[in-house]
């Protein structure tokens, strides 16, 4: 996989109620997602799944990291409105 290929997709972005984390075909099933607020605090850890509720998170910018046993695979930002 070259550097331009994304290992996961977050949609929609910006989001209001739910987001979908879609892993690429080359991603391992042993991955998990960590969501950090704008202060760098871990607010949620989850397994990648089709629909994920973000209703209980305050509005703002979050960093979403795809993590594997080897460490951080990719990091993206999402805006919750």
List the helices and strands and how they pair.
Layout: E1 8-11, E2 18-23, E3 32-36, E4 42-46, E5 52-53, E6 60-68, E7 71-80
Antiparallel strand pairs: 1-2, 2-5, 3-4, 3-6, 6-7
Keywords: Signal
Domain Secretion system C-terminal sorting: 10-77
InterPro entries: Secre_tail
Explain the overall architecture.
Residues 10-77 form the Secretion system C-terminal sorting domain. This is T9SS type A sorting domain-containing protein. Keywords: Signal. Pfam families: Por_Secre_tail (PF18962). This protein has strands spanning 8-11, 18-23, 32-36, 42-46, 52-53, 60-68, 71-80. The chain has a single domain, classed as Sandwich (Immunoglobulin-like), CATH 2.60.40.10. It is an all-beta fold and 81 residues long. The strands form two sheets. A four-stranded antiparallel β-sheet has the order 4-3-6-7, with no helix packed on it. The protein is built from no helices and seven strands. The chain is globular. The model has no long low-confidence stretch (mean pLDDT 87).
Q: What are the key terms here?
A:
single chain; 81 residues; mainly beta; three-stranded antiparallel sheet; 7 strands; globular; Secre_tail; signal; T9SS type A sorting domain-containing protein
């Amino acid at each position: 996989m070259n550097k331009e290929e994304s290992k996961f997709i977050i949609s929609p972005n910006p989001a209001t109620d739910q987001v979908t984390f879609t892993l690429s075909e080359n991603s391992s099933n042993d991955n998990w997602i960590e969501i950090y607020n704008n202060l760098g605090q871990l607010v949620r850890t989850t397994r990648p799944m089709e629909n994920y509720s973000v209703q209980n998170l305050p509005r703002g910018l979050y960093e979403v990291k795809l993590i594997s046993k080897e460490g951080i695979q990719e990091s993206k930002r999402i805006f919750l409105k």
